[in-house]
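Hi there,

I know you've been waiting on this one. I reran it after we fixed the sequence typo, so this is the corrected version. Both the input and the resulting structure follow.
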Amino acid sequence: MSEPNIIEVKQYFIDLQAQICGELEALDGKPFLFEDFNTTNGGISRPRVLEDGRYLEKAAVNFTHSKGTSLPKAASARNPELQGKSFEALAISVIVHPKNPYVPTFHANLRFFLVNEDQWHFGGGFDLTPYYPFPEDVLHWHRTAAKACSPFGSGLYKRLKGWCDDYFFLQHRKEPRGVGGIFFDDWNETSFESSLAFVQNVGNHILPAYLPIIKRRKDIPFGSKEEEFMLYRRGRYAEFNLVIDRGTKYGLESGRRIESVLASMPPRAIWKYDWKPKSGSPEAKLYEDYLRIRDWIHELN
């Protein structure tokens, strides 16, 4: 197994952050707030946040380079042999909360943990959380995810889709967060070069997966009913981030800047007691047709 090159990973993540911010700024018309912070042990945090734009109520595209003397529990729970060891970690995370309920919320992240030349791994993926889904959007999303995986094995998309369906699931609600995508963790199955090539290919498909959807839906008229339903479903998103998400737990345990850790939270959300959508309504369609595990490419093709 080849020796990992953290400088190469860092440069790719920084370049990807700049590309994603540039594309989202061009779409929305409002610039991101740029900040850089030095962290403990020589790390860096580069949050990029856009709020109250024309189309984007909130978008966060954050890069971090963490260094520590002891791996946090959230990062070593699945690999207890790494507990207590010094480490470096790189991560880029992307979250978009749109203003229009017909535009899905979007999430992506890529990360790299390095303990030593024999102990390292990548993780990441992207998933989609619609409120009023369109089948052609979901099909495009999963086709793009499959394209990101296809050069690296014919069965990889199916494997990572299953991993995504399992991870982005609210056990306390017994429902998926959205329509999924791809997700992977502890990825070091091949050489460093081939693992990095896979991660870069996933990163290079983030914008092609999402931008066509937001461009198609951003100007659809909507009213207060649709907006209220979006805010209600955003509550599920907040629940996942605070109760389940390992990235949030890692950020809190590692002592990262709290504003950066929670930048992915929706700017607004509501909760209703024991609310149920009216049978036959567009809101019920989300639950009945989309919030369940499906073979999207074959069923919607």
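Quick highlight: The chain has one domain: 6-300.

Best,
R. S.
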